[in-house]
Amino acid sequence: MQLTxxxxxxxxxxxxxxxxxxxxxAGLVELIKLEGDYLxxxxxxxxxxxxxxxxxxxxxxxxxxxxxxxxxxxxxx
Length: 77
Hints:
The protein is built from four helices and three strands, in the order ααβααββ. It is an alpha+beta fold and about 80 residues long.
């Protein structure tokens, strides 16, 4: 997946702020929650149950994203 220049620069600026200690752990947790809500992240079993499909059916039909050693479905279409 390719990032736009805007996205790349925003991520770089955020990364610098985090490494400079401007973000607390609580703030970072809230940021992760916000991103998860926007992306509507669901684990494969949770997504499969919500759409009434089998785990293998979901794996074949949807793009899988790996974050924190967990497989996720992004369901914000």
